[in-house]
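This protein record is not my work; I was only asked to verify it. Where you disagree with what is written, explain briefly why. This is what I was given:
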Amino acid sequence: MEYFGTLGPACAHVETLKQMIKAGMTGVRLNLSHRSLRESESLIKTYFKAAKECEIYPDFMIDLMGPEIRVGAMSGMMVLKKGQEVTVGDGQIPVQKEILPYFKKGQEILIDDGKLKLEVTEEQKDGKCRCRVLCGGPLSSRKGITLPGCQVERPTLTQKDLENLNFAEEYGVTDVMLPFVRGKEDLLDLRTALDQNGYKNIRIFAKIENMQGVEHLQEILPFCDYIVIARGDLGNAVPYHKLPRLQAEIARRCQKYGRKFMVVTQMLHSMIEHPYPTRAEVNDIFHAIEQGADAVMLTGETAAGKYPAEAIKMLVDTGKEAEDYLKELES
């Protein structure tokens, strides 16, 4: 069983990372949607220093930008209020120009795993469109965007992804996670980029985050080492009440094929602010492993939360309880 945390400001200290590793964390993820490997060098060195002092060498995963749509660079955080009119594109909320044609009147725009919701009221003109805020909250740079019902054509790897892959070996990368995998072609593109750099042993984690990925799961399975059930954006692709069933179906298909899978997103979300999780959260971890998950991962809980070491310990302790239960059933 593998237990991953996510690197970020909250755990950017040797002692904190040592606590996380000693608690049973087997690897970390670095989200490259916000900063490059070069820009994250200090954080990466801190991680490996902590690992060396623990005499344990966990995995180091990079999460690429991939074909995901994201908010562009903003000067600072802004707070959106329900009913507010905002400009998307060259206006208040910057986005890639090539996605503006998909912003038809009435189209919903979900941002930051659906925490924010907009509706297009006026289609694009002069590189921007008008939207109404349906569900507000704080917004900052590089948050993911989902357009329900749309299949936006984007290249598998961005120029920044290719640049980061050039330095993967230098920074000790063992795993690469590709967001929004749509079909086997995305994974073949990634494998080609890895092969061109001479990386034969780096594992590929394919994130299933939209219905395109779900529909092409069978063709995706042979071309990755792990399927990642990424419930944030996947939960934007279907009504919430259908998400548990979708997770169960993906888990079943992975097990039938013999492919490992990971479950991520909001596993201990309440621990971003509180020292203890909800009962539902620990049950969620247990249930994921009972379904056959080979790995579970925390994101904001360790990257930006107040209790990163405590969150990892809770993840691992709950996971080991599930592992012991499954062993008892087999005996």
